[in-house]
């Protein structure tokens, strides 16, 4: 019985360690953010861990230098860059816990949420003959 009890205690200790590591990882994920600035420094964007835009900062001269469509394109570009950086950070944090997770397939560019949903199907007609 002593050996069994020792193995159980060891197992509980391992589970507690892993739980603590997961809590720390979750905290780090919650703190993830990335900031991207345009080459000329006119637009700076910061995104959070889920890619949500937290701030967009403009150099006051941006309105004289860029047209509305150019400004829009620069903003989108910086959001994409910052989101990509956050995604890389997320992958780095999660990989030790789920090394076989196809992270790029699940969260990479071109990922379509609908592809993870069950697809509708039409039942095949059955042959009434036995």
From TrEMBL:
Name by which UniProt lists this protein: YbaB/EbfC family nucleoid-associated protein
One Pfam family it belongs to: YbaB_DNA_bd
Gene3D superfamilies, sorted: Nucleoid-associated protein YbaB-like domain
InterPro entries xref list: YbaB-like_sf, YbaB/EbfC
Record region (Disordered): 109-130
Keywords for this protein: Coiled coil
Residue ranges of coiled coil: 8-35
Membrane-spanning residues: none
